[in-house]
Amino acid sequence: MPDIQQMFKEAWSNALAGVNAAEQEAEKVLNRIADAAGFSPEDVRRHAREFGERLTVQRRELERTIDDAVRRTANRFRIPSKDDLDALQKRLDAIAEKVEALAREKSA
């Protein structure tokens, strides 16, 4: 079975690459529109800043949506979180210590 974590990483990477490409394309379009409309350099900077801010907000929303979807999907598969694994490791360590102590008592 393929590593699910790796699949999620690849999907996330592809999503970010798509967002980056969209941002670059949007910047090109904005520059063409500015040239065609005869905007001043200050107008272009102002519009670009506003557009960039909207893109940033939308990108954060997209990232949050993807994170939520990944989390929901992982929960459906009952994949333990890092915290779950850490807690389990602590419990196993405590049990191993008890077993070792019992073995020492028995051999003494």
Automatic annotation (TrEMBL):
Pfam hit, one: Phasin
- InterPro entries per record: PhaF_PhaI (IPR008769)
What are the protein's UniProt keywords?
Answer: Coiled coil
As recorded in UniProt, coiled-coil segments are 52-105
Q: What is this protein called?
A: Uncharacterized protein
Q: Which organism is it from?
A: Anaeromyxobacter oryzae
**Record lineage:** Bacteria, Pseudomonadati, Myxococcota, Myxococcia, Myxococcales
